[in-house]
Amino acid sequence: MNISNNTILITGGTSGLGLEFTRQLVDWGNTVLVTGRDLSKLGKTKKIFPQVHIFQSDVSDPKAIRELYERVITQFPNLNVLINNAGEMRKINLHDVSYDLENITREIEINLSGPIRMVQQFLPHLKTQKAAAILNVTSGIALIPFPISPIYGASKSGLRSYTKSLRIQMKNTSVKVFELVAPGAKTPLNDKFEKDVDPKTLMDPGKLVAIAIKGIENDTLDIYPGLAKLLKIASRVAPGFLLQQLSKPVDKMQLDQ
Ligand SMILES: NC(=O)c1ccc[n+]([C@@H]2O[C@H](COP(=O)([O-])OP(=O)(O)OC[C@H]3O[C@@H](n4cnc5c(N)ncnc54)[C@H](OP(=O)(O)O)[C@@H]3O)[C@@H](O)[C@H]2O)c1
């Protein structure tokens, strides 16, 4: 797919990988629209990239998605690319009874229901475009659980499954469906995990996003940057060993709480 002259909506485009997508896709000559909840982060993004269009919108709120659609399509009828990037990852001790029934599924609402609802809302419009794409950002943790983040892993595995079905159902349309299986990256999302994840394994967000954009350009529908490639192989040939390694932070989390 041509990676210039598109109109691209990036959810969570104000930090980490989303901000890097914003930076690089602006450089490639695209019209870029970003969403996020925090107005100050949106304002900072606008300051760095005055040509970017900002929209305050919470991807976990269906009403906000309907309103976002009305505003975006009125102003940008050429919108042809949706990047479902917004996401949250928490460390959750399942013995902790302080999570109520609403709170415990927050990652499902943001990371799984969010992209599904965004697609449901924007797909009829995307299908009217000559060349269109949806990129869903999943994670290496969609391939194998990271047991200190059980709800996050469930949300990303769910998104991976949904993305594969979506791709097959879009086969006779102009909409290409990409999955970015992101490895651990140096972004604010990992600040809470500095004791659980070796910082040396975290990828530079600029490099990661450059690989993702190259993947879109080459029509590589499943994109595995850096260690994600290795994780894909290890999750097939040695899933037990890999899960054992990823389970190590559980004891410490339970001792700390
Ligand atoms: N960093 C990694 O190691 C890694 C690895 C694999 C996959 N990923 C995935 O990559 C994506 C980006 O993560 P990141 O590392 O760049 O995280 P980040 O730096 O924490 O940025 C997250 C972005 O999402 C936005 N966001 C969060 N909840 C939102 C909501 N309910 N509605 C709208 N926007 C929301 C945030 O803005 P507001 O807070 O203002 O809303 C922010 O712009 C996520 O889907 C994540 O799961 C990350």
TrEMBL record:
SUPFAM superfamilies: NAD(P)-binding Rossmann-fold domains (SSF51735)
GO CC annotations, alphabetized: membrane
Keyword field contains Oxidoreductase: yes
Key words, A-Z: Oxidoreductase
PROSITE patterns reported in the protein's UniProt record: ADH_SHORT
Superkingdom as given in the UniProt entry: Bacteria
Pfam family, one: adh_short
Family as reported in the entry's similarity comment: Belongs to the short-chain dehydrogenases/reductases (SDR) family.
Protein name: Short-chain dehydrogenase
Native source organism of the sequence: Adhaeribacter arboris
